[in-house]
Amino acid sequence: MRHVDAAISAVSSLPVKIVLLGVPADRPESEYGWIEPAEQLTQPSAGLEPIFRIRRFWENPSPHLAVDLWKRGLLWNSFVLVGEVGALLDLFAEMIPQVYNSFAQIKDLLNTSLETDAIEELFASLPSVNFSEAILAGCRSGLSVLPTTGVDWNDLGDPSRVMSTLAKIGRRPGWLASL
To answer: Which terminus has fewer CB within 10 Å in the chain: N or C?
Structure first.
C-alpha cells in the first residue's frame, strides 16, 4: 500500500500525472509487458524507490529480448495505474479518440431512462483495444513509473501462473483436490 500512497503523492506534486507501478523482474518473461525507466523525477523516500519518467514500453518481447530486458534491470508492467481522473480521461482522448468519443456521444443519456440501452449499444459496438499497445506504448510523456520493491507479484492471466502462485504461498484450494 505504501507504493500506492507514494504514487498518489507524486501525482499531486509532479507534472507527470499518471504513475504506473513497475515490478522488478525476477526472470526473463516474454509474455509480460516491460517498462524501461528514463530519468529520475523524485528522490527515494521512506524506503521507496524514486519515480522515473518512462522511456519505452516493450510488449511481449521475444524470449531473446526478454533475457536482455531482464539483464538490464527493466520492470514488468503491473497495470496498476495511479492518476487523476482528468489525466486518465485526457490520455484516453488522445490515444483512443474513437473510443473516447463514443462514450461522449451518450453522455446526455446518462441518468435517464435511456441510459441502460445506450450503454448496452455502446459496448456492443466498441472495437477491441489492447491497452498496452494502443494507450501506454504510444504515450510516454505523461507517464511515470514507480518500482515496487519488496512486493511479490505475478500476472495471473495464465493457469500455470495461478498454480505456481498458489504453490508458492502454500495454498491448495478445495477444488484442486477433485482434479
So the answer is: C
Do the domain assignments include residue 175? no
- Residues 6 or more apart whose CB falls under 8 angstroms from that of 52 comprise 37, 38, 39, 40, 41, 144, 145, 146, 147
95-112 per-position pLDDT tens digit: 999 999 999 999 999 999
pLDDT band at residue 179, thresholds of 50, 70 and 90? Answer: low
pTM of the model: 0.81
Query: Which of 16, 13, 10 lies closest to 142 in space, CA to CA?
Result: 16
Cell of 144: 511515470
CATH number at residue 19: 3.90.550.10
Instruction: Let me know if residue 177 belongs to a domain.
Output: no
Instruction: Establish if 62 belongs to a structural domain.
Output: yes
